[in-house]
Amino acid sequence: MKRILVTGGLGQMGSELVPELRRRYGAENVIASDLRMPPAGADASEGPFEFIDCTRQSQVRAAVQRHRIDTVFHLAALLSAVAEEKPHMAWDVNMGGLYRVLEVARESGCAVFFPSSIGSFGPNTPKESTPQDALQRPTTMYGVTKASGELLCDYYYNRFGVDTRGVRFPGLISHIAPPGGGTTDYAVEIFYAAIRHGHYSSFLGPETRLDMMYMPDALRAVIGIMEADPGRLVHRNSFNVTAMDVTPEELAEEIRRHVPGFTISYKIDPVRQAIADSWPDSIDDSAARAEWDWMPTFDLESLTADMIDKLRSKLGA
Ligand SMILES: NC(=O)c1ccc[n+]([C@@H]2O[C@H](COP(=O)([O-])OP(=O)(O)OC[C@H]3O[C@@H](n4cnc5c(N)ncnc54)[C@H](O)[C@@H]3O)[C@@H](O)[C@H]2O)c1
User: Which residue's CA is minimally distant from atom 21 of ligand 1?
Assistant: First the structure.
């Protein structure tokens, strides 16, 4: 990886992946891009930025050629709750965007990172310790695009030799950029609410168990899979990765250790609850551990302590 393009670079993950890639590979070698422009006041000296709609192949191609890109981190997508609201647009962005990125990669010889999700599983996938190779019949548009995306990436590797790689992320918890409309957003909102108001009203029920990961571990997973020895990779585009599985009740309990008196109530959003209920309770990431030495570093206790600490400084609380 010498010259890198990140699509969807202003989102929850891109806001932290871009600076991390710039630290490792040099600011001038990492081109951030998005459909939005960086916020007013953003420091242009941090590195190059391009406006790119990933569904416009000419825009992706022009940036790849102009900057002599060899690796694309394709983050641009509509997340699960937004995709359920706008399923047609989600198909266009999630599948259309990936297809065009893969086409440009095929033409230009780029490697591609594609983030799939626990949302690629469905209600008839084994719920506990979901194996790496499990039945995938997702019932959401987000899941349909993620499961199809995994297959399309495999196809481009097998058919055209494009070096595609990816992981299935669980819910990502972070404190830099807000989440973009996923089913696991509660696990970020709860921290802000705890510090600001001492109370959170959760849109998922108390016992909804889902896998989660702290952003520093997610960044390690992204870079780890892209730097992995390709000779060891069997799965390439769909590695289960996780750090913990947790319910809103358990997360609230852990937060209470740092914010005494913190309370949680429940006002369930039926759409997001139905999405969460169709996903696994916990996934098995042993293939990632075996094939490229994946290992998370944050558990619920250390994640909570760090989030509270970082957010207290950020919010001046
Ligand atoms: N955040 C999570 O919990 C999570 C979990 C599993 C997988 N993922 C996947 O990781 C990737 C990044 O997620 P995120 O949380 O940063 O999402 P996000 O919603 O925060 O950011 C996505 C970015 O894509 C941009 N975008 C939307 N349409 C675009 C288009 N047509 N062209 C270019 N850019 C466009 C948006 O402006 C936004 O900045 C996504 O593919 C997502 O499905 C995220």
Answer: 11
